[in-house]
Specification:
The chain has 3 domains: 2-41 and 64-70 and 214-296 and 405-494, FAD/NAD(P)-binding domain; 96-199, no CATH class; 298-402, Alpha-Beta Complex (Polyamine Oxidase, Chain A, domain 2), CATH 3.90.660. The protein has 19 helices and 19 strands. It has helices at 13-24, 65-74, 101-108, 110-125, 134-142, 144-150, 152-159, 168-174, 180-191, 216-228, 276-282, 290-294, 334-337, 361-364, 367-381, 408-422, 431-434, 440-456, 476-484, and strands spanning 2-9, 29-32, 45-48, 51-54, 79-83, 86-90, 93-97, 207-211, 232-234, 237-245, 250-257, 262-272, 283-284, 298-310, 318-321, 330-333, 348-356, 384-402, 426-428. The strands form 4 sheets. Strands 1, 2, 9, 10, 11, 12, 13 and 19 form an 8-stranded mixed beta sheet that branches. Strand 6 (86-90) and strand 7 (93-97) form a beta hairpin. Helix 5 (134-142) crosses helix 6. The longest helix is centred in the last third of the chain and has 17 residues, at 440-456. It is globular, with a radius of gyration of 23 Å.
């Protein structure tokens, strides 16, 4: 059985970042990826007949200098700067997102606008104390009426559950730094064509960097660099078991290929970006918190890609669909991400995103039925004439979003406690690995700090302290710099 300093489960941003940093430090690493074709996880780029598309949409923007420096190191010559433009489709009209104050007031009308402002004033005067749900949190920040117009329908499409069942922690994390006051001020500034100086909430950024051929370009380059450093990236491997040898303080990782072959690898450390539910189920000896892991939920989604001639030139990166009469939740416009995503100068390629649970009616539908649904709905929205669509395909994505229901935090806390006590040498990283709905810069920072811990031979940095802005929470930006010196990401003089 071949052994490594670290075996990494999953070749997404967190797993590949960990492997790259360890390989740079001279450690032997093996990355095991379930997908037979693509690295990058949900940040991969799919190629269909020369048309490239992003799974979920990934802007390369981070407040963390360390993450940005690593992007530049891995992919130094292939970034382009793209304008960020998103809109909301609501009651047959398009609204800029983030909101432009004058446009929103005009389209909502004076009566509706006045009611929204009154609702906001009431929510500020009588807030829900210690909000526990998304409904309560957004109501406090924006008022009940704006919650119902611009948050409720889309959020419930994404999660497949009521906003009264989703933890407020999700909203506080994903809409950090933004309330109606900030949105109005920012909307007034945008309406007057003025740019804000200094840092802004991620929700309000006006431009971002993007690999010219999609985010998968970053992770394909990272995988190649790992191999050149002596590491291994093996595709088409499904995790079967993780066995801890207490006597020798080592791990045995057992995986299965699509052909049914069983392989075993030894490691001092195991780094997992696999969904927590799957990881805990694979542990040997059996985890005492297995029942807690089985209670963790995930939201899946699928993208129906339509190729043809567009009804109009779309500047949007994506459009949020707040119309409850259609099932589609968001529409991506891949040319607006990068012109190189489209192999010719005239075609339009749109991705209609449908949020679902694996095994439900939408997920289990035949591809031709999903394509028929998407053709009908894109025509209803008015972004493309169904008669002009000449090709289409469907891409399914399992476990895209860890669900923040009312009990997930308790289950996760119990699992974390047991893993720390009973399974030394096991490290959790990334979105699904930590059951945290965060962006790829956060996932990368957890990988960087995990690599630093492995190199140090002890848990110096608590990866759970990485905040939503990919900063090491115990000491902010300076803490991240100190943590990453050992990985030579930050020059000594930068401290």
């Amino acid at each position: 059985m071949k052994t490594f300093d670290a075996v990494i489960i999953g070749a997404g941003p967190a797993g590949l970042t960990t492997a790259y940093m360890l390989a740079k430090a001279g450690r032997s690493v093996l990355v095991l990826e379930q997908d037979a074709t693509y690295v990058g996880g949900i940040s991969r780029t799919v190629n269909y007949k020369g048309f490239l598309f992003d799974i979920g949409g990934h802007r390369f923007f981070s407040k963390s200098k360390e993450v940005v420096d690593l992007w530049n190191e891995i992919l130094p010559d292939d970034f382009i700067e793209r304008p960020r433009l998103s809109r909301i489709f609501y009651r047959g009209q398009f609204y800029a997102y983030p909101l432009k104050a004058f446009e929103a007031l005009r389209k909502l009308g004076p009566v509706q606008s006045a009611l929204c402002l009154a609702s906001f004033a009431y929510a500020r005067a009588f807030p829900v104390k210690e909000p526990k749900t998304v409904h309560q949190w957004v109501r406090n920040q924006f008022g009940e009426r704006l919650f119902s117009i611009f948050f409720k329908t889309y959020t419930e499409k994404v999660w497949g559950m009521s906003c009264d069942e989703i933890s407020a922690e999700w909203a506080a994390q994903r809409i950090k730094g933004l309330d109606l006051s900030a949105a109005i001020l920012d909307g007034l500034r945008r309406s007057l064509g003025r740019r804000k100086k200094g840092a802004v909430a991620k929700t309000l950024i006006e431009s971002f960097r993007y690999p010219r051929r999609g985010p998968g370009m970053m992770w394909e380059a990272c995988a190649e660099k790992i191999k050149k450093l002596g590491g291994h990236v093996v595709m088409d491997r499904r995790l079967k078991s993780l066995t801890r040898d207490e006597e020798h303080e080592t791990w045995t990782v057992e995986v299965e290929s699509a052909a049914g072959a069983i392989e075993s690898y030894g490691a001092e450390h195991v780094v997992s970006s696999a969904p927590v539910r799957e990881l805990v189920s694979a542990l040997r000896p059996t985890a005492l918190t297995l029942l807690h892991a089985r209670e963790l939920k995930y939201r899946d989604f699928l993208t129906v890609v339509l190729i043809g001639e567009g009804a109009k030139d779309l500047p949007d990166n994506w459009i949020y669909i707040h119309d409850p009469k259609v099932k589609v939740g968001r529409v991506q416009n891949f040319r607006a991400w990068s012109p190189e995503m489209i192999p010719d100068a005239t075609s339009t390629c749109l991705g209609l995103e449908y949020f679902c649970f694996e095994g439900d009616g939408l997920w289990a539908s035949a591809d031709e039925d999903l394509i028929a649904l998407a053709r009908q709905e894109i025509g209803r929205i008015g972004l493309m004439d169904p008669a002009h669509i000449r090709d289409a395909c469907v891409v399914r994505q399992k476990k895209a979003y860890p669900v923040y229901d009312e009990s997930y935090a308790e289950h996760l806390a119990m699992i974390r406690k047991e893993l720390a006590l009973r399974y030394p040498g096991l490290h959790l990283v990334g979105r699904n690995g930590m059951h945290k709905y965060n962006n790829q810069d956060h996932a990368m920072m957890t990988g960087m700090l995990t690599a630093a811990n492995i190199i140090a031979g002890e848990t110096v940095y608590d990866v759970w302290q990485v905040n939503e802005d990919a900063e090491y929470g115990e000491a902010g930006a300076s803490g991240a710099q100190e943590a990453l010196k050992s990985l030579r990401l930050v020059p000594k003089k930068a401290a």
